[in-house]
Amino acid sequence: MRNYLKQCLNTMDIEITDKQLDNFMKYNELLLDWNTKINLTAITEPEEVVKKHFCDSLACLSFIKNGATVCDVGTGAGFPGIPMLIARPDLDITLMDSTNKRLNVIRDILDKIGLSANVVHSRAEEAGKSKEFREKYDFSTARAVSNLRDLTEYCLPFVKVGGAFVSMKGAKAEEEIEEAAKAIRTLGGAVEAKKVFELEDSGERMIITIKKVSPTPPKFPRPSAKIAKNPLR
Questions:
Q1: What are phi and psi for residue 77, nearest 5 degrees?
Q2: Which mean pLDDT values do the consecutive 10-residue runs of the chain (233 residues) have?
Q3: Are strands 118-121 and 69-73 parallel, antiparallel or unpaired?
């Protein structure tokens, strides 16, 4: 498992220390232990966690500049935020989720690994309207099942003009980009880059960066019910 992670990191040109590798192994152990008490992930084989959670999460690091502020929206069990923080402790990461049970797990994992992050209990559409979080970050990230159109409305409001929303998507991402075109423009964004890669035995993945080119209009993000009922299209 440790060697598999090292190989994965080598293919992505990510160099880490033995201590950082230890932290990944500890994260794996803690995640699977907590998963017996609260549903965090359907992936329960340690090597599958390394491949489908850790390696997948780390694929977006090449888009994140040194010392950046990052808001991981809907972090869940800490993906991609915690793997990014382990590999790049220079990052100032906020882990945001609407479920406090998950955040309690994250607090425990961070404490036991010895890492520091901002842990925020909030719905994205509420935090995105708050002066404390709106347009305060260099980057936002999301590794979620929602379509890119809706994710952009949730995530782009957190980003400063000049920053970017980094979205982690699957094989149908090109279709999602087309469907999200109007929403991206309306919310002050523009597709900047796309990176396609193969995750072993898991098919094609794509990292999409949406650059923040102008401020998001004040009425966005809307409440989740309105986003679902009247998507930007």
A1: -90, 15
A2: 86 91 96 95 89 91 96 96 97 97 97 97 97 98 90 98 95 90 98 87 86 98 96 93
A3: unpaired
Q: Which residues pair with 208 in a beta bridge?
A: 167, 194
- Tokens encoding 102: 């998950």
Closest CA to 166 of 197, 128, 199, 139: 139
Question: Alpha-carbon distance 225 to 98, whole Å?
Answer: 15
Tokens at residue 40, please? 């965090």
Burial of 97 (0-12, 13-18, 19+ CB in 10 A): buried
Cα distance between the two ends of the chain: 44
CA 191 to chain centre: 17
Quote the pTM value: 0.95
Cα distance between residue 71 and residue 85, in whole Å: 12
